[in-house]
Design brief:
The protein has one domain. The protein starts with a helix and ends with a helix. Helix 1 packs across helix 7, helix 4 crosses helix 7 and helix 5 packs parallel to helix 8. The protein contains 12 helices and no strands.
Length: 266
C-alpha cells in the first residue's frame, strides 16, 4: 500500500509539472463547456427547426440528461491523455525506475487505473456543475429539481468515461508510441467502428440490427451490444440489465488485458 501511495505521488508530481497535461486539461474544460454552450445558443435561432426542443433541453431537470450526453464527447480528450501518459512511460522507460525502487508491475497498473477513476470522477463532477450553470440560466422557465434517474445518468457517464479510458490505455500499451496510438485510436473509434456499425446495421433478413454495436467502443458508448438477441430477450424482464452486462464485459476485458500487458514490461 505504501508503494502504491508513492507511485500515485510520483504520478501526480510528473503530471502537475507537465505542460502537455495542462494543455489537455484546458482543452477538455474548454470543449466540455463550449460544446453545450454552442448548442445552448442555438435555441434563440428562429430558423432552427429544433428550437422548441432546445428550449426545453436546458431546463431543470432535463438539463442533467442533456449535459450528461454532451459531455461524453469532450471526455474523449482525456482518453487521448491516458494514451499519452502511458506511452510516455514506455518510450522513456520511466517505469523501470519505479520497478527498481521496489514497485511491482501490478502497482504500475493500479496507479494508472486510479488515475482513470479520478478523471472519470472529474468528468462527472464537471458535467453536474455545467448542468447547474445552464439550468440556472433558464431558471425563469423552470425551477431546480433532480430525479433519481438523473443521478443514475451521471453514474453511467462515469462508467462510460472510465471504459473509454481503459480502452484507450489498451491502445497505448499495445502500440507504445503516443502519436501512433492516438492516431489509431481516433481512426478506429472515430471512423472504422462507426462505418462497420452503419454497414451491418439493418433489419433484415436475420434481425442483425444492431450487430455493429458488438465492437468495444460502440458497446461502451451505447450499451446495446445484446440487442442482437432482441427476439429471444424481448419478453425477459432483465433485458435492459443484459445490455449493461455487455458493456461491462468489454470494460472488464480491457482491465484484464491492460494488467496482462503491464506484466509483460521488460
Amino acid at each position: 500500500m505504501r508503494k502504491l501511495r508513492w507511485l500515485l505521488w510520483t504520478e501526480w508530481l510528473i503530471l502537475s509539472k507537465s505542460v502537455v497535461c495542462v494543455i489537455f486539461a484546458i482543452t477538455w474544460l474548454t470543449c466540455a463547456f463550449g460544446l453545450p454552450f454552442i448548442i445552448y445558443l442555438q435555441r434563440n435561432d428562429p430558423n432552427n427547426r429544433f428550437k422548441t426542443l432546445l428550449e426545453e433541453a436546458f431546463t431543470f431537470p432535463t438539463v442533467f440528461n442533456t449535459i450528461g450526453v454532451l459531455e461524453l464527447l469532450p471526455a474523449q480528450i482525456l482518453s487521448l491523455f491516458i494514451i499519452y501518459i502511458v506511452c510516455q512511460d514506455l518510450e522513456h522507460k520511466t517505469y523501470r525506475l519505479r520497478l527498481i525502487n521496489g514497485s511491482n508491475r501490478i502497482d504500475l497498473f493500479l496507479s494508472k487505473f486510479i488515475v482513470i477513476i479520478v478523471l472519470s470522477f472529474l468528468i462527472t463532477l464537471n458535467a453536474f456543475l455545467n448542468s447547474l450553470i445552464f439550468g440556472y440560466l433558464e431558471m425563469s422557465s423552470s425551477f431546480f429539481s433532480i430525479r433519481f434517474k438523473d443521478v443514475v445518468l451521471f453514474i453511467v457517464l462515469a462508467i462510460q468515461s472510465a471504459g473509454f479510458m481503459l480502452y484507450a490505455m489498451l491502445f497505448g500499451l499495445f502500440f507504445k508510441k503516443a502519436g501512433l496510438a492516438i492516431m489509431l485510436f481516433l481512426v478506429w473509434f472515430g471512423a472504422v467502428e462507426r462505418v462497420i456499425a452503419q454497414t451491418i446495421n439493418f433489419n433484415y433478413p436475420f434481425q442483425l440490427y444492431p450487430l455493429g454495436s458488438c465492437l468495444p467502443g460502440k458497446a461502451i458508448e451505447d450499451r446495446t451490444i445484446l440487442d442482437i438477441f432482441r427476439p429471444i430477450l424481448i419478453n425477459i424482464n432483465s433485458y435492459e440489465s443484459v445490455k449493461w452486462f455487455s458493456a461491462f464485459f468489454w470494460i472488464i476485458l480491457s482491465i484484464y488485458l491492460c494488467n496482462f500487458l503491464f506484466k509483460k514490461f521488460e
